[in-house]
Amino acid sequence: QVQLVESGGGLVQAGGSLRLSCVASGTIFSINAMAWYRQAPGKQRDLVAHITSGGNTDYADSVKGRFTISRDNAKNTMYLQMNSLKPEDAAVYYCYADIKDWSGRYHDYWGQGTQVTVSS
Fold first, then answer.
1. Residue 58: its pLDDT value, please?
2. Which candidate, 86, 44, 45, places its Cα nearest to that of 65?
3. Rounded distance, CA 79 to CA 6, Å?
4. Beta partners for 59?
5. Do residues 5 and 111 lie in contact, with contact meaning Cβ atoms separated by under 8 Å?
């Protein structure tokens, strides 16, 4: 069993910052790609940022220059530093990981989500 647990969401004023964390635990051999997605009410879940096991990153155009994704492979943890937050960044943020188990198979896992609210 594998669990992804996000934390760090909350209420912040526009222009403020938040740091999200995602910790993977359980029967893990290795973690391939990890990513943050977000979903606002009535909208689809969109990719925010992606990071490979080697640390290569990619961002949605809407967050480039404001958000930074990182990971600590030794701790099976991923982060999302969000600066200069805007009201349109408000959403439930989900952690995603592509995890290899001890049989050599890869599986997709999702966290339960953490709410980010940005007041104008």
1. 98
2. 86
3. 9
4. 49
5. yes
Residue 106 pLDDT: 95
CA distances from 13 to 3, 46, 58, 89, 109 (A): 31, 22, 26, 11, 31
Kindly provide the residue ranges of all beta strands, DSSP E only, lying in 8-90, ordered along the sequence: 10-13, 18-26, 30-39, 46-51, 57-59, 67-72, 77-82
Q: What is the pLDDT of residues 63-103, one digit of tens each?
A: 999 999 999 999 999 999 999 999 999 999 999 999 999 99
Q: Determine contact, residues 2/108, Cβ cutoff 8 Å.
A: no
Query: Residue 59: helix, strand or coil by DSSP?
Result: strand
> What pLDDT, in 10s, does the model give residues 11-39?
999 999 999 999 999 999 999 999 999 99
Contact 9, 69 (CB under 8 A): no
Kindly state the tokens that stand for 47.
């990719």
* Integer Cα distance of 53 and 110 in angstroms: 17
- What's the DSSP call for residue 96? E
DSSP 8-state class, residue 21: E
